Amino acid sequence: MKKILKEYIICTIGAFMFVMGINFIIAPLGLYNGGFVGIGQLVRYALEEFAHIHVEAFDVAGLVYFLLNAPLFILAYKSMSKQFFAKTIYTVVLQTILLSVVPIPEHSFTNDVLTACIVGGLVAGVGVGVILQAGSSGGGQDILGVYCSKKYPGFSVGKITLIVNALVYGCCAILFDIEVVVYSLIYTVVMSEVIDMIHTQNINNSVMIITKKAGIEDFLIEKIRRGVTVWSGYGGYTKEKTTIAMMCLSKYEIHTLKKELYLFDKDAFVIENENIPIFGNFEKRMES
Fold first, then answer.
1. Do residues 160 and 145 make contact, with C-beta atoms less than 8 angstroms apart?
2. End-to-end CA distance of the chain
3. Please, what's the b/e burial string for 131-147 (b: 16 or more CB within 10 A of its CB; e: otherwise)?
4. Pairing of strands 204-211, 229-234
5. Of 150, 165, 170, 273, which is most buried by a Cβ count within 10 Å?
6. Residues pairing with 230 in the sheet
7. Please, are residues 192 and 223 in contact by the beta-carbon 8 Å criterion?
8. Model pTM score
9. What is the pLDDT of residues 51-62, one digit of tens each?
C-alpha cells in the first residue's frame, strides 16, 4: 500500500509540473504543446477566433483533452495492466482538472521566448518523466502507441507521437507565424529529451547471469516475464559446471531483477550493458 500511495503522489506531482510548464510558461507566449494537449489548445483557439466562443469558467483545452482520451480508455483497459490503467485514468483526470482550472497569466515569467522554451520543456518533461516512472501515463498518444506496438509490428510510441505532433504543428504552421512552430518544436524537443533521461523504461539493457544453481531460466521467466537464452559453461579455474543466462530488458526492470536474483542465488555473477540498440521481437513495456 505504501508503494501504491507513493506512486499516486508522484503522479500528482508530475501532473502538476506538466501543467505548470504549459499554462505558466509556454502558453502565455502563444506556444503550443504537442500531442492531445496541443489539439485541445488548437480547438480552444479555433472556438475563440472563428466561432467567437470564449468560456470564462474553465479552459476548454482541458475538456477537449479529456474527450479525446475517453475512447482510448477502452484500449488501455484491454492492452495494459490493471494497475497501469487505474493510474492512467487518475493522471488523465487530474491533468484535465488542472488544465481546465489553472489560469494562464497574461505574461510568462520571462519575455525571452527561447528561455521559456527551454525552462518550459524542462519543467513539463520532468513532470511527464516522473509520471511514466511511476507506472502511469498522460494517456493520448501513449495509449495509442502501446496498443499499436503490440498489435502491429514496427509501430512504437515514438512513431505515434511523431504523427500526432506532425498534425498539431502542421496546423500551427497554417494558423500562425513560422516562429510559433519553430519555438514550439524547440520546447517539444527539450521536453522529449528530459523525458527520455528520466523514463528508464525507454533505456534498453542486456544482462548476462552466470550461476551454478539450476533452474535460472524458469526463475527469470516467472519473475521478470522476459525471454531468456541459456547455455552451459564451466569455470576456467575451478572447472565447475555453470549456467549462463542472457536476457534483454529495460533499465526500469533491472532493480526487480537484482532484487529477485539475490533471493535465487546471492553468489550469481552479473554483467550488465546499458543503453544498447535492440532489433527484433523485443516488447516495449510501459506498465509497472
1. yes
2. 15
3. bbbbbbbbbbbbbbbbb
4. unpaired
5. 165
6. 245
7. no
8. 0.76
9. 888 887 788 999
